[in-house]
Amino acid sequence: MDTDSPDLGITFGVEEEFLLVDAASCRPVPLAAEVLDRAARAGPDTAGAGLPGLKHELVTSQVETASAVCTTEAQLHLQLTTARRVLATAAGDAGALLLSTGTPPLPGRVAASEGARFRRIHRLYAGIAADYQVSGCHVHVGVPDPDTAVAVVNHLRPWLPTLLALSVNSPFHGGRDSGYASWRTVEQSRFPGSGVPPVFGSFADYQEDVEARVEAGVLVDPRMSFWLARPSPRFPTVELRVADAAASVEEALLQAVLSRALVRTALTALAAGREAPTVPERVAAAGLWSAARYGLSGPAVHPRTGRQVPGSLLAGELLDLVRPALEETGDGATVREIVSGLLTRGTGAERQRAAVAAGGPQAAARCVAVPLPGRPSRAVASL
């Protein structure tokens, strides 16, 4: 397996989910259809990135963008910036703010989105899905085949909690501080097929497990698993679904380049015949819970020893592990700069809490609002 191939562990893309809130009250509003229609009519992007993929999500206060397939950090940065600019403008024209946060800072009930699959999801999961207004940042990294995808995911398992800790951006639930840095992770944990995935020996084993869950009636279809990393059911990629919605383009980019570096590191290990490190499910679950509870600012669980260590220490170990892959793709300096900013000025969750302390609940929403063109982003400025 040649990791220097231009297609192996190089191509990547990002799907970002966003929330829509009223511009005055900062409470969720059911404006997805109007905002997506306005965005679709925006016309070609003058920066040359092309119009991003725009989609509905589970509820009418939520929208999603999908980047094109990229090979460089610069390409992806332009895609992410363009997508946010188009949607933020459309939201502003509809009297709303576009928020990039894992959960809404203020409560507000909205309806399910139209569509047969969305109706099946709400019918099956009932109260769990009734007010499921959570948003994530999903990263796809190209791999050559499904069996390789499964083997790569096995190598990613130890580091999924650390990716979450770097991304935590959902401290509020129902208008109150949940005490967690990522309440989105808690919300997701109530669904079957969530959390750090099991170890699978092959793609056939993976498919058998997913199909058994569908036949048992706990998954709507094979696309419905909530595992934080999986072979994509739609693309020739590994899909990482661990991160909260990123408060800024830079933080979304961080998840993307770190995810790609982890995949490249896994491919190198597989080429050398090195198996994935063993992480018992209880240790993986403990690590994920700790990352959701504390983010970077508190204890984490070391995947090798199962003991508590500082979250910042694990972040450093992750960067050490993927440093060769980051240097190969030229992303090392960018990652070090963004991580330094998170450690110095706080994660999205910490910045939201600081905003509430200074200006009340609406200030938390405004600090993660995607800025309109020509206006500075508080989230970006804080990094």
From TrEMBL:
One of its GO terms (molecular function) is glutamate-cysteine ligase activity. Keywords: ATP-binding, Ligase, Nucleotide-binding. Its EC number is 6.3.2.2. This is Putative glutamate--cysteine ligase 2. Signal peptide: none annotated. It is an enzyme of class 6 (ligase). Transmembrane segments: none annotated. NCBIfam families: gshA_cyan_rel, PRK13517.1-1. ATP-dependent carboxylate-amine ligase which exhibits weak glutamate--cysteine ligase activity. InterPro entries: GCL_type2/YbdK_subfam, GCS2, Gln_synth/guanido_kin_cat_dom, YbdK. Belongs to the glutamate--cysteine ligase type 2 family. YbdK subfamily. It catalyses: L-cysteine + L-glutamate + ATP = gamma-L-glutamyl-L-cysteine + ADP + phosphate + H(+). The keyword Transcription regulation does not apply. It comes from Streptomyces meridianus.
